[in-house]
Amino acid sequence: KQEVTQIPAALSVPEGENLVLNCSFTDSAIYNLQWFRQDPGKGLTSLLLIQSSQREQTSGRLNASLDKSSGRSTLYIAASQPGDSATYLCVGAGNNRKLIWGLGTSLAVNP
Amino acid sequence: DGGITQSPKYLFRKEGQNVTLSCEQNLNHDAMYWYRQDPGQGLRLIYYSQIVNDFQKGDIAEGYSVSREKKESFPLTVTSAQKNPTAFYLCASSSTRKAHEQYFGPGTRLTVT
Fold first, then answer.
1. Count of CB contacts below 8 A, A vs B?
2. What is the rounded average pLDDT for all residues in chain B?
3. CB-CB: which of A32, A46, A101 is closest to B43?
């Protein structure tokens, strides 16, 4: 049974710092892995999607990697800004396309 | 602009009353989904629909009902049978070919007292 775990649950950093959010999954037979951002009381915004055949995806200051053999994905945020403060959710899609959600990492970037 | 809308943003109801949450999309997606989000838990799938006039139960369908009379609309009714209805409800849609790439609405916060 696929499980997705995100560590840490919460993170507080000063503005400008580079940071890494971690996501681990138990079943390496993953179809793809996606990172979402959620602001308090709001819906989800897709940040990056990595297909199982890919190793990483980049968008601006964000870089997401996928290592199926170790069951890990990381979201790297460069030069963090207060506007990056949000909850970041990792979700894995199994080969049956069912989505398995992590609980998220709550990020606070302090000015 | 293409997207998904949910209304209302906040909803308050008394215990024992049914309440319907609206979800509309103009992305021309065939598939639509309802999720529930609670603190300390990942998103949980309530119902999904892959085509008009058809829908399937998700992981926590008890106490909920849906309809899919139009491609653009997928309303969710929270019935009085739902034991813990207070939660944040998220609607999503996708193409059927890319069911794992879902687009989300802004959510509705339901509070039942």
1. 41
2. 93
3. A101
